[in-house]
Amino acid sequence: MRPGENGRGATPTPGAREGSGESISLQEVLRVLRRHLLLVSAFALAFAGISAWVALRTPASYESTATVRLADLRSGLTGGLGDPVAERMAGRRDPLLSQMEVMRSRTLVGRVVDREGLRLQPLGTELPAGLIRNAKVPADAPGDTIQLTFGAQQVQARTGALRAAAAYGAPLKLGQVSFVVDRLPGDATSGELVIASRSATINGLLGRLRARPRGETDLFDLVYVAGDPNSARVVLDAVVEEFQRLNAQAAQLRSRKRREFIEEQLQQSDRELAGAQMALSEFRRNRQVYSSREQIGQEQQGLRDLEVRREELEADRQTSRMLLAAAERGGTDTRALRSLVSSPAVAGNPVIQGLYNQLMAYEAERDTLTTGRFRSAEESPAVQRINQLIAGTQARIADAVRSQIQSQDARIAALDAIRDRRTSRMSGLPELEAEEERLTQQMVTQQEGANALRAELQKARIAEAVEIGQVEVVDRASVPASPVPQHRGLRIFLGLLVGLGVGGVAAIVRENMNTTVSSREELETMMGVATLAVIPQINPAGGSKRSLLRKDGTGETLPQVAGVSSSVDPSVVAAWHSHTPGAEAYRTLRTNLMFSQSVRLRTMVVTSAGPADGKTTTSSNVAATFAQQGMRVVLVDCDLRRPRIHEVFGMDKEPGLSQLILGYNGVEEVIRPSGVENLSIISSGTPPPNPSELLGSERMMVVLRDLREHFDLVVLDTPPVLLAPEASVLAAGADGVVLVVRAGVTQRAAAQDASQQLHTVGANLVGTVLNDPDAKLPGYSSYYAYRYYGYAYGGAKA
Length: 798
Description:
Mean pLDDT: 78
Low-confidence stretches: 1-22, 76-81, 85-92, 540-558, 780-798
Helix content: 40-55%
Radius of gyration: 64 Å
Largest sheet: 8 strands, mixed
Oligomer: single chain
Distance between the termini: 28 Å
CATH topology of the domain at 522-536 and 568-794: Rossmann fold
């Protein structure tokens, strides 16, 4: 934003730290870190020192490694009869990782601790590593301390009331504890052993024991780190052996439990099979059948046979009826009768066949009588008798056929009755078949289950007899040839990095906890107006601050500058040192003020939110820079409560502004030269009892109009906005207001309140001036880059 871009009466916007939600840029983070460089450096050095101390005091350690393979050795010895439960679970988990966790279990490590007597440990560093071996400490042994005294030929041990002695290399038993002191430990004459708690020893061993899988294989490495190379190998070997033993025992235990479970299931299955067989036998005995399915088949076949016979009888009956009807219609024509008698339905009837043969004989006899040379007439008694016999025989044949038809009807009715009975009997057979099938299937299922359990029982017995597990030792632990690299430099470097990180976080936290204005960007975002200038720390390098102090302050003489009175305070650097960063900053402020408004500034108020922000120094220097530009400038001390302008320019306070407003003195009497060319001063005068009413009076407005007529620029140094109302009163009638903010001192809330107060009275807040006499802002800011001039300087504090 350019100076004055917001215009008259712009509303200040909240700062980024007041909840704007904008992310912090890397540049701002770097500025924060630089502002708290000492804090970050302190953390970095502290962490680096701690890392160095720990690295140098860490004793040498030795790492022993063993390689273990997870293989199904039991299946190879049992003919492929593995553990079905383990096989089912294998698809749900990684067996290698599971075994690694078992290897690091407290149960296994506890067995190693008890086996190797690891609870018995040297106290301190007086005893060399590997001096104590073959230690035996019961798991329930309480913690204790054992005092050792080394003699020329033997070692003595005591704890409480117990005493014991043994030669070097011989077992030494002290209560429940026994161990061997291998040799005389050099120049040492005594030492101490401690019986650590079992839980702490297990935790310590677990902390030094690691397992590393080897890629996509069934191998993993066991690594153990100890202070003695032999101890590292011995302990790791013990871990591997106990791991192998525990795995085998666990496999055997699973096999035994599985065998016992199968035996129980087999007994139950045999009982259920016997019950199923008995139920099937009882059913068949009660129903008097062996197989309901076969009985149904027989009944169905019988029904089919009955149906065939009935259909045949029905066909014969129909045939007989039709032929009989035809024969009766034929009268004496015997052709229909012959068809009837020769039909299969009648041909088998011997009575009908006998009658038919007799009929044929009668017809032959009639033919003999009625043919030939000696034939008889039809009316002859012999022929008449034969015709009667033929007619009677035909009638008897018809009666016989009718009798046969009646017989067929009776037989068909009998077959229908038999069919009905069989159909009724078959209606109950499906239920019998279903029940028999259920009982049979139940028996078969029980039989199959019992057979499967017998096979599994045999597998379980074989697996139980095998005394190995799934762990195969590929490489046993070896004695490490050299200690593990300590990487002290890397650890110190990492400590330094961690310290820098922690220090950076602490710096950011401290910065966020700081409620004061700490950067130009923050001030501009918070106030909504441009920061017209940043006044740097002015700290001389070619001498010291006292070279710029007044003679009556330190006793040293202020160097004379052309056009500047020696009575002017050195804080007016724009007059004393025109080529210093401070003077350049004030000239930058002058330039921004000259181009900040489209309307020329004739009356300007310089104020601040609170005291000690540097408003008097700023007003004095900005007035001096405008005067050096050739403008006629008057600086008016409107702070009637705590005036300082007269001190800065080395003049009396009276007569001044208060006398001018009250009419006790004229303008010519209160205006005095400042000691800087083109710059005049009106001091505060006698402090009145009512400063706000006096400065807000109509007479004050008249005074300001008169000053505007005689000077190009009127600069009003007012009290702080939040402490006295005079600043707001004067700001409302001025062409522009400059608000001075001191970095690291002015609270953000106070600066915002001051801006809001000026906005409320309609003042034109042209911009802010960020005063930094305590070097709170980064030194690499562009406003500090005045190295071109080759000086170092002292700064304003007021």
